[in-house]
Amino acid sequence: MAVNRERVPADAPARRPADVLIAADKFKGSLTAVEVADHVAAGLRRVVPGLRVESLPVADGGDGTVDAAVAAGFQRRTARVTGPLGEPVTAGYALRGRTAVVEMAEASGLRLLPQGVFAPLTASTYGTGELLRAVLDAGARTIVLGVGGSATTDGGAGMLTALGARLLDAGGDPVAPGGAALAALATADFGGLDPRLAETTVVLASDVDNPLRGPKGAPAVYGPQKGATPADVATLDVALGSYVHVLGAALGPAAAEAAESPGAGAAGGIGYGAMVGLGAVFRPGVEVMFELLGFADALARADFVITGEGSLDEQTLHGKAPAGVAQAARARGVDVVAVCGRLALPPAALTAAGISRAYPLTDLEPDPVRCIAEAAPLLSRTAERIARDFLAG
């Protein structure tokens, strides 16, 4: 039986190739967001030469936020600050005009600790305060403070001290660094706080909305990730309670009430310190970063979107960058697929999130150690599959 083939008029315009937007987060432990975009683009173009691809690395306020801002046109700057254990470290931030993007993990992050070393009771955010001071020195008067990946649970006390606050024990001496030492806090004096903060807008960008204390607070939920034992969690929760009481006495009832606010427990409670001491306004990190990166304009130019991160799992659905990308693309009727190292979401959850299909690297290399080590070539091969499935022909 003959097959009926539709005749295409000779003067019919050629089909325009899709404009592809790659808006993926980092693959933690293997590839930055910039590297993810580069390898995906290379794989796509091996199948569809000349494909128009726009890369916009994205972040949610945690690790990789500064890199994403730099990729979008911000200038990278560095400052020498105090690390979470008191050692000097070089921390980066991003600056464009009078707007700065600060990633607290650059100064106070878990990744700065020696391998296998944790300090849940004594790690300090002092270096983050020094980094903010450097940003103010550079002329910034709008600061996006991205939080996540912290080694600390000190409620932002170290940060506030570095910016001029005085946190004293009953003898009038400064309390020691770290969250546990806040149990000895007796008085707080904010009279010496850097006056430039009064004319600065600080946005707390985070993908978590935990309160400071309690069963959903910073010590209980995130303390174990930083090496805290159950006894340490109890110690930190009590110490942060003293901190809230003293700051409430110094700054008024609103300071105590802020401990229950969404985001107060972000990054070991630095969210609380930023809200109370710096007047920071909490906003979802994805929302803030999308505005800074110009995501809406990039999406408007796209016919097809590729997003992703190292692990697509339940956490992805709660404020992570790929979920934000997919939600925005779905609202515009643009198809979205995701790349990932590991997939831990069922098809129904992906569909509900607005992701048509996910491509885990483990489909090509089931061994997780090799998958992480060989993420770059695996990602390019995965992008070739996406091109054949959605873009070729």
UniProtKB/TrEMBL annotation:
Q: Which GO BP annotation is one of this protein's?
A: organic acid phosphorylation
SUPFAM superfamilies reported in the protein's UniProt record: Glycerate kinase I
Keyword terms, alphabetized: Kinase, Transferase
One Gene Ontology molecular-function label: glycerate kinase activity
Keyword RNA-binding in the entry? The reply is no
TM region positions: none
Q: Report the Pfam families cross-referenced here.
A: Gly_kinase
Note the InterPro entries from the entry. Answer: Glyc_kinase_flavodox-like_fold (IPR018193), Glycerate_kinase (IPR004381), Glycerate_kinase_RE-like (IPR018197), Glycerate_kinase_sf (IPR036129)
Q: Does the keyword Transport apply?
A: no
Which protein family is it in? Answer: Belongs to the glycerate kinase type-1 family.
Q: What is this protein called?
A: Transferase
Q: Which organism is it from?
A: Streptantibioticus cattleyicolor (strain ATCC 35852 / DSM 46488 / JCM 4925 / NBRC 14057 / NRRL 8057) (Streptomyces cattleya)
